């Protein structure tokens, strides 16, 4: 099973640690693409801070993020599970997982990244700011870079297991599994039900996804189909509705009434 998460916009900033070593990251087939994106981002933020703020969608009060990007190659790094923050990652809370669940997290969880394409939780990365919809000078849209670089890497990472895709729409565009993988793809949507009405609410969506991943890692089950995943989630206490299989996989709706 491969659980694929979105990154967080906000990130922790490590105060010390070794600088970034692209060659030490998982999925070395992505190294060249990672270097292209990194070099383009650093050059932009170093040479034209005003343009960088525009490209990155930053306000005047966020100039420190431009400066941080400009120094990425020398910045301290930490494990990705300590860099990514926010509601989903707070609910997942990797640091408090059992030893067995932490081992499963290292093997089974990956994070979509606009700077690195895809990282594992144990990969050491710096704090950065780069949205998935950004377009960098001389490089173009970062999404296009990853659409070209990721397919073979993600197929290899998935192996013969089930893909549990929890990415947001922006990052789902980096790589979409082909129809040949559809029977092994489960996309998870969280719906908040209140007074008979269901809708996607960002906070509920992110928090519940974090709790789902945490529960799966602690439980240790390794379902191989979307239907089997739904059975595991129901056993773990969630209400799950299974959609019809399609060319893009099977959507599981997890319905919650409270956080």
Automatic annotation (TrEMBL):
GO CC field: cytosol
InterPro entries hit by this protein: YaaA
BP-aspect Gene Ontology terms: response to hydroperoxide
A Pfam family hit: H2O2_YaaD
Record protein name field: Peroxide stress protein YaaA
């Amino acid at each position: 099973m491969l659980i694929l998460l979105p990154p967080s916009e906000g990130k922790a900033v490590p105060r010390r640690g070794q600088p970034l070593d692209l060659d030490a990251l998982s999925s070395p087939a992505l190294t060249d693409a990672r270097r292209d994106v990194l070099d383009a981002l650093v050059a932009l933020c170093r040479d034209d801070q005003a343009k960088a703020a525009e490209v990155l969608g930053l306000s005047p009060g966020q100039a420190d993020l431009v400066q941080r990007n400009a120094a990425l190659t020398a910045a301290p790094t930490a494990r990705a599970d300590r860099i990514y923050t926010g509601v989903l990652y707070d609910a997942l809370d990797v640091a408090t997982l059992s030893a067995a669940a932490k081992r499963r997290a290292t093997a089974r969880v990956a994070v979509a990244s606009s700077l690195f394409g895809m990282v594992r939780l144990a990969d050491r990365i710096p704090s950065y700011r780069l949205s998935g919809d950004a377009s960098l000078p001389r490089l173009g849209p970062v999404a296009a870079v990853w659409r070209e670089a990721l397919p073979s890497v993600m197929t290899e990472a998935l192996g013969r297991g089930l893909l549990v895709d929890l990415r947001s729409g922006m990052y789902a565009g980096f790589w979409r599994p082909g129809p040949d993988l559809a029977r092994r793809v489960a996309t998870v949507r969280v719906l908040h039900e209140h007074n008979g009405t269901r809708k996607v609410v960002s906070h509920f969506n992110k928090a519940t996804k974090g709790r789902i991943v945490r529960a799966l890692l602690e439980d240790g089950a390794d379902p191989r189909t979307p239907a089997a995943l739904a059975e595991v989630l129901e056993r773990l206490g969630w209400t799950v509705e299974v959609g019809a299989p399609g060319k893009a996989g099977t959507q599981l709706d997890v319905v919650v009434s409270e956080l």
